[in-house]
## 1
Amino acid sequence: MRTLVLGVLTVSALLGRARAENDSQTDLLGPREVALGEAMRGGATGASAIGLNPAGLPLNRELVFEGGYGYRASDSASLIAVSACDSTNAMPGCFFYDHAGASPEEGGMTGKRSTHVAGLALSRLLAPRVMIGATTKYYHFDSDMMGDTKASGFVFDLGATVRVSHLINLGVAAQNLWASEPSPRFPRAIGAGLHAQPLPSLALGFDMRWKLDGEDHSARYGGGAELFLRSDGSLGFPIRIGGLRDNGLGATYVSGGVGLAGLKWGLDIAARREVKGGDETMVIGSLRFYGPRMPSSGLDAD
């Protein structure tokens, strides 16, 4: 999740409880990624690039500040994030901070887990249609749960995006590829995705991610679609749906979200519900403000 808490979502007490995959690869996702089944590695821009693929930052040219809040009922987790991303210069980048605070129940007892993550994502246009990127993250994990180990250190992500045509992007990214102090909360993983825009108002995505740590090397794959509707004025209304399957957890999720986009600001809200393997529910929203926004014509050069 990404972004500055400028508003708080009220979540119903009726939300279900179940176990959650509580690690950096899910806690760092925002409402757009969640709504689309995490299928944005081929088209991740702005704050979405932080958790999925830093190489996507040059896909647009804008200065954007974003902040958000999410709630996951399974472990009573509050997910807070803030970011500032600037892709108007020769080396696009993002500064970010994320916090996940949870109160999981195990063995009839409730404990506390807290994760702080701060860092920098940078990207570079290597060729007119080829982008590379890297993210450096400092984390601090604290817990009073039995079996958990407190840890802090640096972890690093790498990514690449290829703009195959005006309609199709391919992306690949490795999360937590190297760590100064390995932690199960920051497992190594590699993911790849396809992002297609067959119509100006319609975008489609499909992603897969494989864990490299652990015994099962589980796969997590999903897809989604975004329809962007415009009013007669300057407002836009993105509508998103998605699905996600995690083989390691034996879990299947459905997700969706809506947004409101103006020339200088944007609002996104998303929800995800586990429909097989448990009953986890998560709700997340973000608000962003734009500075200068420019065309990205350089990406379309031959």
## 2
Amino acid sequence: MLSSVLKLFGLGVVFVLVCWAATGRADAAVFRDRAAFNAASQNLHVIDFESVPPFEGVLDIDGLFFHSPVGMQIDTQHGSKVLVVNSVGEFTQVTILLPPGTTAVGCDQFTTPMIVSISTGESVMMNQGDPSTFAGFVSDQPIQKLIISLDVPEPTPVAVVDNLTYGQKRAGNEPPLPQLLVTTDTARAAALDSVTTHSEPFHILSLHNFATDGHTRITLFLVGVILEPADAPFVSVQAEDSQQHVFDLPVEGTARVKNLSWMSQVTVRLPDALTAAGNLNISVTVRGKVSNKAAIRID
């Protein structure tokens, strides 16, 4: 299980814990050619380290966390800024915690030999004679971590990482599948009041409101899809109560989450029909693809 602390909106200190649990083992495909990896993936994001500010200890870029027990820094090699992971004695290692829902990840690694592996168990040894400096993985199951390491007699080389790419596995010509984020402790929907940023329970009406109708708006968070404001007409949200009655929640906005380019948000209005509805299961449909269901509470 992967737990990541995500800063949402950049409004003060607002945290949501999200989780993604693998439900079985499926071998990941290993790619040594970036073009083939790109063709097997979608919603790809690239970190090239060119604009990374100075840091100490753990490096956080776009909600991805880089950790090395022996230190790391940004350096310039071959005319580009890269992440250099130090070695100590006979040991080199960096662990990259990936966003929830990641099923495709790859990077360029210029120093050899070095082992590149992922949390589902697959790995590739990058040797000096390899024609490619790229290693990528595409899996049916979430990939929680990418690890670059080596444990050999001294002098053990440092690891050099560039062009870290992550996203989701491509499913033919089908639209990507949206996935609602849920909390680690309760597996309930990661949802916030769009004005106060408070979590559940929600109320239909709110005194803290930008709208004249007084109705509460809540924001839901998705991975697996990239949503912009123009995508709102292609998104719908439904809530189902304990009696299996289904209610439509009007979608009033879609966007990417600030400072987390791999996460999207959907803002909906709570209608009068949900007054004191209690626990509801929420799902989001994007271009005909329905997400997982997650619970929220309306008092």
